Amino acid sequence: MKRLRVVAGLTISLLISSLVSSYAQTSITPSTPWGTWFIGTVQLPGGDKKWGGFAEVQARGNAVFHQFFYRELKGGVSYDLNDHFTFSLAGGHYATYDYQALKDGPLNTETRFWQQLIVNQYLSRLKFEHRYRVEQRWFTYRDGTTPYRNRIRYRLNLFVPLNKPTITAKTAFLSFYDELFLNPKGPTFERNRVYGGVGYQLDNHWIMQVGWVNQTNYNPATFESGIFTPQSASGKNNVVLALTYRLGRNKNEKLPSQTD
């Protein structure tokens, strides 16, 4: 019990620090309207056969419930080594538009592949998910350029069931995460994403989540022609609406993490 209290205290401190950091990041940039993320996912949990997978579609709006400008189509396979370790290989196609000129087609598209390791920790009612991801990214811009980039991501996700000790059928839960996006070639710190939300697992198949996410992108400091430009950050708050459907009849606890 003492160890659990220590872990809970450290976790709450981390989440508060993340929220304060997120506010500080966005407060130095001009005010931007809230956006919207819609996430629909079909999952096949590993279960007894260990092999699983997922498919997901995501759409984003520059404002709340309108001004569509971005979409994702993703899918992958996973393998559960045990209840604590899951490996996966996945990929996706991404497109960014000018919401005022959708008929002109995307401003840029991206093809992405990634390798991922998830480590789960269960401490009584506190459920931790550590996610490590390495991405390979191919871009195509309107001007014909096709740059390639790598990226490393780490996400710490905390789940807290409210009315049951585990997240199974008819369980309400809280979810919080902070994710770091790192560029191996620099500038190293590229992006930070903070999320907080509430969810409900209706049965063995359907899971709904509603939350808030702040995504902040960083531009590096520069010194060119004798002029120093300090680091800048641009952040945006978004409403998140997520719906997940799980195939199969696995009744064991499976953390309702978002695959994004």
Automatic annotation (TrEMBL):
Residues making up the signal peptide according to the UniProt record: 1-24
Alphabetized UniProt keyword annotations: Signal
Name of protein: DUF2490 domain-containing protein
Species: Larkinella terrae
